[in-house]
Specification:
With 76 residues, the chain is of the alpha+beta class. It has one domain. The protein contains 3 helices and 2 strands, in the order ααββα. Strands 1-2 form a two-stranded antiparallel sheet. A hairpin with a 3-residue loop joins β1 and β2. The longest helix is centred in the last third of the chain and has 12 residues. It is globular and about 30 Å long. Bound molecules: zinc ion (ZN).
Length: 76
């Protein structure tokens, strides 16, 4: 199982693609099917902020409001 880094500020592009391949999500990523769990924006390697696990892999983009929601979530 790939180790998920929950508290990184930015995921390295290369690590992100390795994660996607390891998780069988790369095809969904290429088809623009990965969405930010906060704002439903398409997740790309340019806007990925964090990956977390909550009944499936969830993604958070780098919008300020999304990062705030994500950080709130962590403290709960
Ligand atoms: Zn977002």
């Amino acid at each position: 199982m790939y180790m998920i880094r929950k508290e990184v500020d930015a995921i390295l592009e290369e690590d992100f693609e390795i994660f996607l391949r390891d998780s069988d999500l790369f095809e969904q990523y290429q088809n623009n099917q990965l969405l930010c769990s906060c704002c439903s924006e398409h997740i790309t390697k340019e806007n990925i902020f964090a990956i977390y696990y909550d009944d499936g892999f969830k993604f958070c983009c780098i919008k300020l409001e999304c990062m705030e929601i994500f950080n709130e979530r962590k403290s709960n």
